[in-house]
Specification:
With 388 residues, this protein is α/β, with parallel strands linked by helices. It has two domains: 172 residues, Rossmann fold, CATH 3.40.50; 195 residues, Dehydroquinate synthase-like - alpha domain (Dehydroquinate synthase-like, alpha domain), CATH 1.20.1090.10. The chain has 13 helices and twelve strands. The strands form three sheets. The protein has an eight-stranded mixed β-sheet, sandwiched between helices. A two-stranded antiparallel ribbon has the order 8-9. α9 crosses α10. The protein is globular, with a radius of gyration of 20 Å. One of its GO terms (cellular component) is cytoplasm. Keywords: Amino-acid biosynthesis, Aromatic amino acid biosynthesis, Cobalt, Cytoplasm, Lyase, Metal-binding, NAD, Nucleotide-binding, Zinc. Its EC number is 4.2.3.4.
């Protein structure tokens, strides 16, 4: 995969990556301690713009004041922040209405900026509101979770959930800047950090075996916060930026980024988008299932499957359906119910299932027109396994 354009800026510790999309190109700034530069960066990009921060209650406790201070010190006017509840429940029609009306009430104009300060939920929600308020307002992503820094903040996918499935209502709306301050990850709970790590491992499995091998050896440093963390975030963003630049609207290659997500999104829906299963945890189970399903189709070996499962388990991620809390509840233990949820996946074409599978570790492929009966049988077999 061609690498994204990369430079060092402001200090040797800040990595700048460009998402090359012509007139909509933007930079990803990655490094420790970058939040204080937010105001100056915004002022350089949009002189005179007003801003409105959208965040959630937990992030606000830690990072709202520093973000507001950064804007104030640079002379960037900020409206009253819009604070939503934590969790996937905020990716809903009702909360989208609240955020949109809040931006309108704050008189945020088309030449102003929305700042999404938070994890994937806030980024998706605030980004979608930005896409539709006044038919489009620019926004800046300030991701505060590992998952958001390496995945959801980059690429312009914004949206909310439907009761029928994950991310079914949304729009492509690119940010003008992503500011990934790795220091903010220090306040994440261990479970939240692990959930984000699933998306890091995904990049190695889908397109870079060397990176996956590096993760197998260096994951402890990512969790402890040494320089391995910045390297992992930059490598993940570099991989995603390259794919997005080549396939912005997911007409082909970008679908590879959904490795593990067809299974994972169905599991999230089956658990009611609750804290029973974080998104990254669903992706971890989904990637293991995708590896096992790939092996069943003769694409990779059982040794490869074991390696995927062993690595995810080594960092404390769930890898089996039985690892999900109360997995027999709410359809999680029902193969037909899970299959029905998979048919709401965005990759379904004319009623045909599409999966992202592995033809080898480090190389994912798009497999179209997968026989639903084979998926049902596979899920039934996995559901019949006894818990550890």
């Amino acid at each position: 995969m061609p690498a994204a354009a990369e430079t060092k800026s402001r200090s040797d510790d800040t990595t700048m990556l460009e998402v090359g999309l012509g007139a909509r190109s933007y930079n990803i700034a990655i490094g420790r301690g970058l939040l204080p530069s937010l105001g100056e960066r915004i002022k350089a990009l949009r002189p005179g713009a007003r801003t409105a921060i959208v965040t959630d209650r937990t992030v606000a406790k830690h990072w709202l004041a520093p973000a507001m201070d950064a804007l104030q010190s640079a002379g960037v006017e900020a409206a009253q922040p819009i604070i939503v509840e934590d969790g996937e429940g905020s990716k809903s029609y009702g909360v989208l209405e609240d955020v949109s009306e809040g931006l309108i009430a704050a008189k945020i104009e088309r030449n102003d900026l929305v700042v999404a300060l938070g994890g994937g939920v806030v980024g998706d929600l605030a980004g979608f509101a930005s896409a539709i308020v006044r038919r489009g307002v620019d926004f800046v992503q300030v991701p505060t979770s590992l998952l958001a820094q390496v995945d959801s903040s980059v690429g312009g996918k914004t949206g909310i959930n439907s009761p029928k499935g994950k991310n079914l209502i949304g729009a492509f709306h690119q940010p003008i800047l992503v500011l990934a301050d790795t220091a903010v990850l220090d306040t994440l709970s261990p479970r939240q950090f692990r959930a984000g790590y699933a998306e890091v491992a995904k990049y190695g499995l889908l397109g870079d075996l060397g990176f996956f091998e590096w993760l197998e050896k260096n994951h402890d440093g990512i969790f402890s916060g040494n320089t391995a963390r910045e390297h992992a975030v930059a490598a993940s963003c570099r991989a995603k930026a390259g794919i997005v630049a080549r396939d912005e609207f997911e007409t082909g290659e970008r679908a590879l980024l959904n490795l593990g997500h067809t299974f994972g999104h169905a599991l999230e829906a089956a658990t009611g988008f609750s804290d029973r299963l974080f998104h990254g945890e669903g992706v971890a189970v989904g990637m293991t299932l995708a590896a096992e399903f790939s092996a069943r189709r003769g694409m990779i070996s059982q040794n490869d499957v074991a390696r995927v499962q062993a690595h995810l388990a080594a960092v404390g991620l769930p890898t089996r359906l039985q690892d999900i809390a109360g997995f027999t509840q709410e359809g999680v233990g029902d193969a037909d119910a899970l299959l029905s949820l998979m048919f709401q996946d965005k990759k379904v074409k004319r009623g045909k299932l599409t999966f992202i599978l592995l033809e080898q570790l480090g190389r994912a492929v798009i497999v179209n027109d997968v026989d639903p009966a084979s998926v049902r049988d596979f899920l039934s077999e996995k559901l019949s396994q006894k818990p550890n």
